[in-house]
Amino acid sequence: MKENIRFSNLDRENTIQKLSEEVFDLVIIGGGITGGGIALDAASRGLKVALVEKGDFASGTSSKSTKLIHGGLRYLKQFDFWLVKEVGSERAIVHKLAPHLVLPEKMLLPLIENGSYGKWLTSIGLKVYDILAEVSGDDKRQMLGKKEAMKLEPLLPKKILKGAGYYAEYRTDDARLTMESIKTSLNYGTVALNYVQVDGFIYDKEMIAGVSARDVHSGIEFNIKSKYVINASGPWVDELRTLNNSNKAKRLHLTKGVHLVFPQEKLPIKQSVYFDIPDGRMMFAIPRGKVTYVGTTDTNYTQDKNKVTVDIADAIYLISAVNNMFPKIHLELDDIISSWAGLRPLIHEEGKSTSELSRKDEIFVSDTGLISIAGGKLTGYRKMAERVVDRVATRMKEKHNIELAACTTDEISLCGSDFKKFKHVKKYIAAVYERIKEDGFTEYDAWFLVTTYGKQTETILENYGNLKETDNVIKMAKAELHFGIAYEMVQTPMDFFIRRTGRLYFDIDSIKILLNPILEEFKKVFELKNSQIESYREELEAQLIESSDFTLRRN
After folding, report:
1. Which residue in 346, 475, 521, 524 has the fewest CB atoms around it within 10 Å?
2. Ordered alpha helix ranges (H), 98-194
């Protein structure tokens, strides 16, 4: 499979022309993980696919999850065995497809006095979890005594700790997983573009025959003709169903999930922990590089979907939960270095609380043929895509006697995942470190490059070698930026700092160093005016304050 297919907003006019002139089998609205998964599934089965996203790719829910490919242990308590089996089994598949992005992460489940999980039920539950998810080898669950649990995580509450469950999960970068899924679909002919708003639908004999779209940056309006349209817009699914006059029966129920980021030294846990909150909920604490992040909340949300923020009440709630579980830790609001808040587009069920709502996905087909998908979990994105494309395949068979091939995405490796020469991601990280350490880079820098870009790190290092810049840190960031502009549709500095590199969340201090050089590079590459650069600067600085400064909200 060819990697590094040019995918650049420098070619935006040509891409819009292609979208407006060609006739597609399928238009997908929504460039999150669901839309990206559908694009890869459909295109790899031979469909001619277009994908549009009103913001940046993964700018909605798909960059604001807990960033875990996990089996949903808590759904056993709801007896949702089907969901546990599906997403549990998917973990190993997605790890195989992108081993640099989906990393094994052992999870510790402390058993405490009067906690949510007792020893016997936890043992049985984790055993069922292993069976449903087909877990094998060292990943199988273990039940630990108090001493064993304390050895793994010394910060646990010794007085009330009774033991722990120890089981396997996987950590990911949700935005990168989305990006690589979309890029991989390019190998099969997908035409994709970010910052394209769908304002309506076009019809032929009362059936959907495409979408009316608008370039968010230039304001240019154009139509995309297509045999089928899939609405995979996450929290905005109902808005598009309303445009189609089909927002009937079931509707979305949005809930907000908040995560906080702390310096590793402020919350120095040795490994990931899934623990009790006094109100009966559970939450995660996950070490990642230089930081530890915690989450999540689960509250009803009815406000502006385009501006979801972390309230001070959310922050206090999570901090209190951490301090309660780890008595040696005394976190305060001032310790927060970053944060994010995202929406879960769940299917509404009367009489159920947010935590009781099912995480299953559902497909709605309107009388005019609009296919909408909502609900679901990050972990199950590939199976969600398969179900939607199967629905399209059924309609194609019935209407046109065209038979599509079966789904093969469980065998399609994502961009950046070819580690055959090195056999393992860790060996490639070590090799990259050997190549860059003489320039003052650390093992963390090598880990960051590989777990962000995989084998595409080779292109970045090639860019690095060709750039003229005295400061090596700035030179490497510029090398990343040039890669993102050429191959990942980077259009704004926010795309780069938030979705492509995750720096806003996991290395926020680096932005202060890189802000001016990166803005200068944007100005040069995109030939921008000073006024546009200053607008970007203001937007970034506002985002930095919103993510990290809770002093203003407290006052």
Report:
1. 524
2. 119-133, 146-152, 174-186
Measured CA angle at 174 (ends 190, 340), to 5 deg: 130
Q: Which of 330, 350, 370 is the last residue of a domain?
A: 350
Bridge partner list, 204 = 207
Please give, one letter per residue, the 3-state secondary structure of 524-549: HHHCCCHHHHHHHHHHHHHHHHHHHC
CB atoms within 10 A of CB 78: 15
pTM comes to: 0.95
Percentage of the chain surpassing pLDDT 70? 95
CA gap 344, 172 in Å, rounded: 18
Domain range spanning residue 88? Answer: 62-171+253-350
Both 379 and 479 in one domain: the answer is no
For residues 27 and 125, which has the higher predicted lDDT (pLDDT)?
Answer: 27
CATH number, position 289? 3.30.9.10
pLDDT, tens only, 174-214: 999 999 999 999 999 999 999 999 999 999 999 999 999 99
Rounded Cα gap, residues 322 and 140, in angstroms: 27
Q: Let me know: does 481 contact 464? Beta carbons within 8 Å.
A: no
Cα gap 395→414, rounded to integer Å: 28
Closest CA to 359 of 342, 381, 375, 343: 375
Position 470, amino acid: T
Q: How far is CA 109 from CA 91, 169, 269, in A?
A: 19, 12, 13
Nearest in space to 476 (alpha carbons), one of 509, 512, 517: 517
For residue 242, give the CATH number of its domain: 3.50.50.60
Question: Which is more confidently placed, 263 or 90?
Answer: 263
Q: Whole-angstrom Cα distance, residue 357 to residue 80?
A: 11
Report how far apart, in Å, the C-alpha atoms of 308 and of each of 120, 219, 323, 479, 500 are: 40, 25, 25, 31, 20
pLDDT in tens, 209-256: 999 999 999 999 999 999 999 999 999 999 999 999 888 778 888 999
User: Is 2 contained in some domain?
Assistant: no
Between helices 33-44 and 174-186, what is the axis angle to 10°? 20
pLDDT digits (tens, 9 = 90+) for 299-336: 999 999 999 999 999 999 999 999 999 999 999 999 99
Based on the structure, what is the number of domains in the chain?
Answer: 3
The pLDDT-based confidence of 66 (bands split at 50, 70, 90) is very high
Report if residue 162 sits inside a domain. Answer: yes
Q: Which residues contact 195 (CB under 8 A, 6 or more apart)?
A: 53, 54, 55, 56, 215, 216, 217, 491
Residues 431 and 544 reside in one and the same domain: yes
* String of DSSP letters for 393-413: HHHHHHHH---PPPP-GGG-P
Distance set, CA 363 to CA 182, 242, 347 (Å): 21, 16, 11
> What is the per-residue DSSP string for 456-471?
GHHHHHHHHHH---S-
Residue 506 and residue 431 in one domain: yes
Closest CA to 26 of 287, 368, 388, 353: 388
459 pLDDT tier (thresholds 50, 70, 90): very high
